[in-house]
Each structure stands twice: as C-alpha cells, then as structure tokens.
C-alpha cells in the first residue's frame, strides 16, 4: 500500500514528529492547548473558515505573492539560476501575516478578546497587531529591549496599529526572554486570551498550525515555479530561526526530489554565544513546552545566542525541522555568517532593487554560495521579508564601502 503524503501523517495525534514536539506544559495550560487543538481540527477545517481565510489572503494580504527570477544577481554570481519567492510583497512586508491572520481568525471563532505574542525582529509583532486591528481584538506584544532598539520602525508600527508593546529587560533581552515573558502573561488569563506563537515552535498544536497556515507559500511557489520553467526547482533555500517561513515553503516539496536547505545564523564564531545555529551545534533538549534541538550550556540551561538578525537569535528550532533534518535526513542544515548576510543584503539591494530583511539575507547569502557549486541548476529562495525594519541599523553599523563619511558636527574642524 502506498503511504500517505508526508503532511497527512505528521505530526502524530500527540503532536510529535518522531521524538520531537509534544506539549510539556502545566495542567491548566494543557487544557487550553487541547481546546485550541480541537478548535483547529473542527473550526479550522470548516468550509466557512477556509473560505474566509482565502478571502483575507486575496483581498487583504494581496496573495499570491510572485516568484521572481533574479537575473542580474544570477549573472554576477555565475552557476545556478536564482529565483525568489517574494514574501516581502505580502501585506506588512513578511510571511508572518500568513499565520497571524489564521490564528486571529481562529481566536475570533473561539470568542477570545486578546492576542498575546513575542517578537524578535518585530515582523511577527506587526503582523499580529495588524490581525488584531482587522478583527477588533486587543493585542499585547512582548519584545526584548535589545531588539526594541534595533528594530525601532517595527515598534512604531505596532503602536500605531494599537498594540501594547511590553519591553523585556531580563537575561539577554532578546527573543528567548520575550517568549518567556509572553508565556507568563498568557498564563494569567488563558480563557480570554490566546498566545499566538510566531513560529513553528512551542507546545502542540502550534508547530502544526503555524506550518499549515504558512503552507500557502509552498503551494503557490511550487505551482508558480512549474509554470515559469516547466520543472521543479533543484533546490529550495530558506532561513531558519524557529523556522516558520522555511516550513511554509518546504512543506510543498517534502515529497519531491528537491533538495531543501535550512540556513541558520552562524553569527561571528563557533563558540556558544557567538551564533544561533541549533541544528548545526545543538543537542536534544526541551524548551518552551516542546522537545527539539537546543543550544544548551553545560548545566542544561539555554545558551546565549547571537545573530545580526533579531528574528533568528533563538536557542532552538521547530521540532519538525529537527525531525526532518536529524531523523529523516530530508533537509540539509546550512549556514551564513553575519558578514555573509550583510554582503547579501547589499548585493540584492543594488543588483535587483530589493532590500531584504536581515533574516532573509541569510538565505540569499547561502544561495549565492550554493549557486557557485551547482552550475546549470535552479535555486528557489524564500525571500521571507523586506528590510525596511533593518535599514537604519545596517547602514549605521555596517555602512557600504562607498558610503559618504559622517558630516562634521556644527562648529567642527
């Protein structure tokens, strides 16, 4: 008997992808997770829900987003042909709205009044604030103080949209601490609020839900690429922090003979605290209510992490990514350093007129390396977001070589 397609069989009823996943949460939260799971399986698969979500995607989000052939970048690099799935053209500027609108629609069916979430780069926060405004719900976004300073434009956008932004000033003051803070806030009133996780992480059913809401990226891209070229891509490349954009595009190609590359942030070195490459350097462990691959200190606590991209500096990875890579060997763990991501940021901007998010620049950076090694082949990159949020930080911290020197202060010599 022929086996079912991968997505039909994963995760199992308990939310596991092999040994990864599950829901290790307090009893009161476990009950809420069960309610959300039941609602997703019933309401989320109803005709009315599906039609409403499709209407939102077409008339509010502006889907489908196109696949674009990066001709000038391809010609400069030589080797494989580079194509971009333009999620930067999705409303709010990134893929995050795909699952935020789905989660908020489900919350509205459940009678929830408040959406709570964490954010690193701010794109998930902006997307959820947008969804809350659309459905008339309250919104509370927890964000590390380091990321608030780096991603100021997105902080302003969240506030304009009506969200309450909660600064998190403990620990490294980045994404992990924001998740901790958001979970704690959710636990105070899980009946009237819902925690809308920003990636394919967290306790079951969120890794499955976020993957399914993001699967629209892969469904579109697979059809578009075949229409453009007559073939499937030889390679699909996406950045991986928690991994929502990667699972979204990978999901359509898992049963195909296409190589899948998850690009992790290699940061500035190989020591703990210098990178956030969980699949490359991590070990089996537990974090935020799920089992996956985790970067840990010798005492078992989550390690400090680093990436120039705020949306990638997380000490773990979605359980499905761990399963596909470590158990099935279906995906490849790849990486790009801070310096390579910055180079790709400027290259794509100047050769194609597309300013990528720093997260997406990691995928572009690895695709550039891969292209040189794979002549005559094709590479589809998930350009998961645009770089409006990053331009001030990048230009001030990593100015291009031809940037004008700072002007003299008034009265200077």
How would you explain this protein's 3D organization?
This protein is α/β, with parallel strands linked by helices and 413 residues long. The protein folds into two domains: 17-59 and 96-206, 3-Layer(aba) Sandwich (Rossmann fold), CATH 3.40.50; 63-93 and 215-397, Rossmann fold (3-Layer(aba) Sandwich). The chain has helices at residues 6-9, 27-42, 47-61, 71-77, 97-109, 123-135, 145-150, 152-160, 175-187, 206-229, 244-250, 278-281, 319-327, 338-352, 358-373, 391-397, and strands at residues 16-17, 20-21, 67-69, 81-86, 114-119, 138-144, 164-168, 193-195, 235-239, 259-267, 283-287, 290-294, 331-337, 378-383. The N and C termini lie far apart (81 Å).
Q: Features of this protein?
A:
413 residues; alpha/beta; Rossmann fold; 2 domains; 6-stranded mixed β-sheet; 4-stranded parallel β-sheet; globular
Write the layout of secondary structure elements.
Layout: H1 6-9, E1 16-17, E2 20-21, H2 27-42, H3 47-61, E3 67-69, H4 71-77, E4 81-86, H5 97-109, E5 114-119, H6 123-135, E6 138-144, H7 145-150, H8 152-160, E7 164-168, H9 175-187, E8 193-195, H10 206-229, E9 235-239, H11 244-250, E10 259-267, H12 278-281, E11 283-287, E12 290-294, H13 319-327, E13 331-337, H14 338-352, H15 358-373, E14 378-383, H16 391-397
Helix pairs in contact: 3-5, 5-6, 5-10, 6-8, 10-11, 14-15
Biggest sheet: strands side by side, in what order? Answer: 3-4-14-9-10-13
State the end-to-end CA separation. 81 Å
> What pattern of helices and strands is seen along the backbone?
HEEHHEHEHEHEHHEHEHEHEHEEHEHHEH
Work out the radius of gyration: 20 Å
Number of helices: 16
Specify the structural class: alpha/beta
Number of strands: 14
Give me the CATH architecture of the largest domain, please: 3-Layer(aba) Sandwich
Look up the CATH topology of the largest domain: Rossmann fold
For the largest beta-sheet, the strand count, sense and barrel status come to:
6 strands, mixed
Instruction: Give the overall shape.
Output: globular
The fraction of residues in strands falls at 15-25%
Low-confidence stretches: 406-413
Q: Give the CATH level 1 class of the largest domain.
A: Alpha Beta
Helix content: 40-55%
Number of domains: 2
């Amino acid at each position: 008997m022929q086996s079912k397609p991968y997505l039909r069989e994963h995760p199992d009823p308990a939310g596991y992808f092999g040994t990864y996943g599950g829901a290790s949460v307090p009893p009161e939260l476990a009950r809420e997770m069960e309610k959300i799971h039941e609602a997703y399986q019933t309401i989320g698969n109803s005709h009315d829900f599906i039609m409403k979500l499709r209407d939102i995607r077409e008339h509010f989000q502006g889907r489908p987003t196109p696949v674009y052939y990066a001709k000038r970048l391809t010609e400069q690099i030589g080797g494989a042909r580079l194509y971009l799935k333009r999620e930067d053209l999705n409303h709010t500027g990134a893929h995050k709205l795909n699952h935020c609108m789905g989660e908020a629609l489900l919350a509205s069916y459940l009678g929830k009044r408040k959406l709570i979430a964490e954010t690193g780069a701010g794109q998930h926060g902006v997307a959820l604030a947008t969804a809350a405004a659309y459905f008339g719900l309250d919104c509370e976004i927890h964000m590390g103080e380091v990321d608030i300073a780096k991603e100021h434009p997105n902080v302003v956008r969240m506030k304009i949209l009506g969200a309450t932004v909660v600064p998190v000033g403990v620990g490294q003051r980045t994404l992990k601490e924001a998740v901790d803070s958001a979970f704690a806030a959710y636990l105070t009133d899980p009946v009237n609020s819902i925690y809308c996780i920003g990636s394919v992480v967290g306790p079951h059913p969120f890794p499955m839900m976020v993957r399914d809401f993001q699967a629209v990226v892969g469904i579109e891209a697979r059809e578009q690429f075949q229409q453009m070229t007559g073939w499937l891509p030889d390679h699909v490349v996406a950045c991986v922090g928690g991994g929502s954009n990667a699972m979204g595009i990978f999901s359509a190609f898992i049963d195909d003979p296409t190589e899948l590359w998850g690009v992790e942030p290699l940061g500035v070195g190989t020591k703990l605290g210098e990178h956030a490459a969980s699949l490359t350097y991590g070990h089996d462990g537990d974090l935020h209510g799920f089992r996956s691959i985790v970067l840990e200190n010798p005492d078992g606590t989550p390690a400090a992490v680093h990436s120039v991209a705020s949306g990638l500096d997380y000490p773990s990875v979605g359980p499905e990514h761990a399963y596909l890579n470590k158990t099935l060997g279906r995906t490849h763990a790849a990486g790009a350093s801070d310096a390579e991501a910055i180079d790709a940021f400027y290259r794509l901007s100047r050769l194609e007129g597309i300013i990528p998010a720093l997260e997406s620049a990691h995928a572009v950076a690895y695709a550039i390396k891969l292209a040189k090694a794979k002549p005559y082949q094709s590479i589809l990159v998930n350009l998961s977001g645009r770089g409006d949020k990053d331009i001030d930080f990048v230009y001030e911290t990593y100015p291009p070589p031809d940037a004008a020197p700072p002007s003299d202060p008034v009265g200077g010599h």
